[in-house]
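Honest question from a wet-lab person: if I give you the sequences of every part of a complex, can you actually get the arrangement of the whole thing, not just the pieces? Trying it with mine:
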Amino acid sequence: QQKVQQSPESLTVSEGAMASLNCTFSDRSSDNFRWYRQHSGKGLEVLVSIFSDGEKEEGSFTAHLNRASLHVFLHIREPQPSDSALYLCAVNTGGLSGKLTFGEGTQVTVIS
Amino acid sequence: GPKVLQIPSHQIIDMGQMVTLNCDPVSNHLYFYWYKQILGQQMEFLVNFYNGKVMEKSKLFKDQFSVERPDGSYFTLKIQPTALEDSAVYFCASSPLGGGNTLYFGAGTRLSVL
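Yes, you can. This is the full assembly:
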């Protein structure tokens, strides 16, 4: 059964500094990965999707996938206070059905 | 981006009653999902639905749960009867084609069973 774990649980960064989040998964055959974020009381907002090893950039968000080491990272470039949210890693474990397994999330706080 | 709407945002009911959670998915999407999040825990997959049928369900999708989308209207999750352990936030999602396509989530319905 797929296990998805995120670290750290919480992260405080200064405005403009790079933030890096880590996600590990257990099934090397997983075929796609997404990072979402959730502002308090709101729905999930998809940030970046990645399907193959290497990097994928979407705006100020860069995902880095390394299947061999079972890691997918998210880097947030020049974060703003509005980027304070819960960041969730999601791994597609359902093939064609698109079923996602989520990590527990990293709570990011950006301070001015 | 595409919006999934969930109604209501919060529902409080007594244990044993029936509840229906409503989801208005993105209009041209074909796959629909329900996820459950107990306070402080991970979001967990409940069920997915395509072409009028349940495709896959998890062990969390108890016999008291059912889903349907009659005539392209709301995608609903019904729980009958409810139990205390059903208290959670329920998230609806939809995607164009499943598989590698992105799932778009609603803001969730917080269900409180008393």
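Two things worth pointing out. Chain A is about 0% helix and 55% strand. Chain A touches chain B at residues 4, 31-32, 34, 36, 41-46, 49, 51, 88, 90, 92, 94-105 (CB under 8 Å).
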